[in-house]
DNA sequence: TTCATTTTATACCGACAGTCCAATCATTGC
DNA sequence: GCAATGATTGGACTGTCGGTATAAAATGAA
């Protein structure tokens, strides 16, 4: 993604969260980003598309962090809680929730479809994580449980927003997860379910898969941008990652462990955003090649 | 409320649900209702206000039906389920949910405030009903449980809408209510809660309370409009209701029982909508006089 | 009949998303 | 250094919409 385009996105995001989507005109964005109307419509075909790009970016960013956080530790409800937390934090920092709301109305069919995919991908993630974390016996109920959990959580958040309550997220999340457990046991006990497993994951991905070789290239080129004292370290990482990426069956766990530290090398450098964007594509490729069907993950 | 204004509201509602709020222009409404722009802005100060009027109307209508359904039967989870069902049905028939979404964005501060009140009133209703239905021991957890229940339900509905699933409402509701029970037991067992009781009900009502005597008058005048063969029956009802209304402490249960059949007399007559509107005010007055604090109900 | 209110019809305003295009700038191959 | 190609600019322009303004017409009560 073009650097300039990134800049425009950043400006637009800034304005959207300051003034809200509806109250931000395209002219505002042009002024803030210092570009002309023609350029804007070169990048995005509409204001809506610009909004979608912003949301998608943040969404994928949180997906990256979720993957990184899972690396190393033994899996369990706490990890799942942290993964949920990540998205909440990102949502708050970037104030995404109002933007989601903005999408819901707006009548635009494309936007609604986009939202639907995001929504389903989150449910699919939740469903598969529930099975991973709580065990295979939860599979028949995981879809229902995912919906219930997601609903409880978002309702709590919305309520907190309405009344300006400053509950910290971890408290809410663990509260919800404890309810989730008891619900799962209850569902199993009465063998009750409404939504069959796997109902969410028939989504098509939002973007076409990036090219493998090109992505592998990108990693190496990325490492070259590091300051001298880190470059050798970075090149080690990037060499390994690009090999692994191009291999027949990338070793998911290894990549998980290495990708996080590698990306973190770029924190604070001018290439942090380029690093994030590259790693997004890496994850996409990796998930695809390591068999997306077996492990439905984000996007 | 003016008959003509009602007509405009009906036309607007029709268009909103056919084409969505965003895709309905004021001009469309004018054409559909056969009025001029000036008249429209006599009735509503803006398109938003028109939307609010529509939602409020439906909302109160379902509140009336909820009250009516509670009459007679012994209270319990089934009654609560039916009461929830009523709102869902009305929401679906009148396709309100997209209109709610429309409100969420739109940036308009007044609309958001309106939505917030509706939301809180629903939570307050749920909280108080939970205590009534499941017992006093649930009080400390009822607020949390209300949020969780509302969240689970709306998430299920949203999901059904997204995937065009035709689960019937009763199945979903009883599914949710069973979860609610087990959650309540769990919360009590661990003595866990986040939101203290009564947090929702500090809402101000959306409309000023109607005048008592005037409302009592209205009931009697209303009964006069009935066709000959029903008038005597109607007058009996209306006489009782207006007395009860004006009394120091209206007997809530009695009124509950009588109000429904009385209103139903007008079904199919040209005054059905006038009857509904009158009964809305009756309920408001009654709830106020029978001690709203003790029994926080709708609005 | 008179007088006040409501309704109509229409012109108008400003804001906005989105289109179009000719002029300009930057990059790259030669 | 030059030419060609493509990105960028800036602004004029269109059409839509929500909302205002107002003069004329209709309605209705005294």
UniProtKB/TrEMBL annotation, chains A, B:
<dbReference type="InterPro" id="IPR023772">
    <property type="entry name" value="DNA-bd_HTH_TetR-type_CS"/>
</dbReference>
<protein>
    <submittedName>
        <fullName>Transcriptional regulator, TetR family</fullName>
    </submittedName>
</protein>
<keyword id="KW-0238">DNA-binding</keyword>
<keyword id="KW-0678">Repressor</keyword>
<dbReference type="Pfam" id="PF00440">
    <property type="entry name" value="TetR_N"/>
</dbReference>
<keyword id="KW-0805">Transcription regulation</keyword>
<dbReference type="InterPro" id="IPR050624">
    <property type="entry name" value="HTH-type_Tx_Regulator"/>
</dbReference>
<feature type="domain" description="HTH tetR-type">
    <location>
        <begin position="2"/>
        <end position="62"/>
    </location>
</feature>
<dbReference type="InterPro" id="IPR009057">
    <property type="entry name" value="Homeodomain-like_sf"/>
</dbReference>
<dbReference type="GO" id="GO:0045892">
    <property type="term" value="P:negative regulation of DNA-templated transcription"/>
</dbReference>
<dbReference type="InterPro" id="IPR001647">
    <property type="entry name" value="HTH_TetR"/>
</dbReference>
<dbReference type="GO" id="GO:0003677">
    <property type="term" value="F:DNA binding"/>
</dbReference>
<feature type="DNA-binding region" description="H-T-H motif">
    <location>
        <begin position="25"/>
        <end position="44"/>
    </location>
</feature>
<keyword id="KW-0804">Transcription</keyword>
């Amino acid at each position: 993604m073009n650097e300039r385009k990134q800049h425009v996105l950043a400006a637009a995001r800034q304005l959207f969260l300051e003034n809200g989507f509806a109250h931000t005109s395209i002219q505002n964005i042009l002024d803030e980003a210092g570009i002309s109307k023609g350029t804007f419509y070169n990048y995005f075909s509409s204001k809506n598309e610009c909004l979608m790009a912003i949301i998608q970016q943040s969404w994928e960013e949180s997906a990256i962090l979720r993957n990184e956080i899972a690396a190393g530790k033994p899996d369990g409800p706490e990890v799942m809680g942290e993964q949920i937390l990540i998205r909440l934090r990102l949502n708050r920092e970037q104030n995404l929730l109002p933007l989601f709301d903005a999408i819901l109305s707006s009548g635009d069919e494309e936007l609604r479809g986009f939202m639907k995919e995001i929504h389903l991908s989150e449910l699919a993630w939740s469903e598969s994580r529930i099975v991973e974390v709580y065990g295979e016996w939860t599979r028949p109920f995981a879809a229902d449980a995912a919906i219930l959990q997601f609903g409880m959580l978002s309702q709590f958040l919305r309520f907190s927003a309405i009344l300006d309550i400053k509950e910290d997220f971890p408290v809410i999340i663990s509260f919800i997860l404890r309810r989730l457990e008891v619900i799962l046991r209850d569902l199993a006990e009465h063998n009750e379910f409404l939504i069959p497993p796997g109902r969410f994951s028939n989504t098509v991905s939002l973007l076409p898969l990036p090219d493998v070789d090109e992505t592998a290239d990108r990693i190496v080129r990325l490492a070259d941008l590091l300051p001298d004292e880190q470059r050798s370290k970075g090149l080690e990482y990037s060499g390994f990652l690009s090999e692994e990426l191009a291999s027949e069956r990338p070793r998911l766990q290894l990549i998980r462990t290495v990708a996080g530290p590698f990306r973190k090398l770029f924190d604070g450098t001018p290439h942090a955003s380029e690093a994030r964007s590259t790693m997004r594509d890496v994850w996409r490729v990796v998930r695809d090649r390591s068999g997306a069907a077996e492990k439905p993950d984000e996007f």
